[in-house]
Design a protein that fits this description.
The chain has 8 helices and 10 strands. Strands 4-1-3-2-5 form a 5-stranded antiparallel β-sheet. A 5-stranded mixed β-sheet has the order 7-6-8-9-10. β2 and β3 form a beta hairpin. It is globular and about 60 Å long.
């Protein structure tokens, strides 16, 4: 891969009983990505969670990543995939490698947990170890890469929106100070006042999982102009996130970036009730 390769890792939790369908569709997606020349897909299984998989997408560059995101055939396959999933958080590449993942799927080599796994240091003969500038080093992920992951997570979450009344689907992804990404989608209710926006779903999920410090949030909708958070969401974001960076995007890419204080210049917060 070239230095400009774009990498994203999506954690997928498969619904019980849907593993066969999921693996079949994932294999079709891998083949399609390769055939179209966008890059490669690898599916890894979490050894401690049998129904959790990590979809590693390595696009040739930002342009092919954008082309893949706009590809209707790939979009259709992703929608079919989501029907077999229970949860879709997005994780950082370094974290995915750190926790130790085993490859999975009939189209990939599976590493055994038994005798085939290397369990001791076999050592190196003198002169065979790379040192200094000759050592292989992994490509460093940039801020742009991480922003693209955040937007991709929000775009993926949007597909799970329940918007039967408005048909206006929104996805959100909030990033914690530790680099974890928590997603949310809008959930409509026949009692309209109980409808929950994607931004608040993401914030409440993150808070319920113990996260308390956030850096930015991405919001994705299928609109030409930027779709900003509503007033209630801006207030919730300020209450629990302070002056977050707010990244607004549509299905083609980022449309604008804002500081939350620009979207909510006069917030009500604890200063008024202390």
């Amino acid at each position: 891969m070239a230095d400009q390769s774009v990498v994203s890792v999506v954690a997928l939790e498969v619904t019980a009983g849907k593993e066969t369908d999921f693996l079949s569709l994932a294999g079709q997606l891998q083949a399609m990505v390769r055939k179209k020349g966008y890059g490669t897909n690898q599916l890894l299984q979490d050894g401690s969670h049998p129904r959790r998989y990590y979809d590693i997408r390595i696009w040739r560059n930002a342009e092919t990543a954008a082309l893949a995101a706009a590809d209707n055939e790939i979009e259709d396959l992703l929608q079919y995939l989501t029907k077999n999933l229970r949860a879709t958080p997005l994780v950082d590449v370094a974290w995915a490698v750190e926790i130790g993942l085993a490859t999975a799927g009939p189209w990939l080599e599976r590493r055994s947990n038994g005798a085939e796994r290397r369990v001791s240091d076999i050592g190196w003969q003198d002169g065979n170890r790379r040192v200094g500038s000759d050592r292989r080093t992994a490509a460093q992920r940039t801020a742009a890469d991480k922003e693209q992951d955040l937007v991709a997570a929000a775009r993926f979450a949007r597909e799970r929106a329940l918007a039967a009344f408005s048909d206006f689907k929104v996805g959100a992804a909030i990033e914690t100070a530790e680099g974890r990404i928590i997603t949310g989608c809008n959930l409509e209710n026949s009692t309209y006042g109980l409808t929950m926006c994607a931004e608040r779903v993401a914030v409440f999920k993150a808070l319920s999982e113990g996260h308390r410090v956030f850096t930015r949030i991405a919001v994705v909708a299928d609109t030409d102009q930027a779709t900003t958070p509503c007033g209630a969401c801006r207030q919730i974001l300020w209450e629990f996130g302070g002056n977050l960076e707010v990244i607004l995007a549509n299905l083609r890419g980022v449309t604008s970036r804002h500081e939350l204080k620009a979207l909510l210049p006069h917030p009500f917060d604890a200063r008024f009730i202390e």
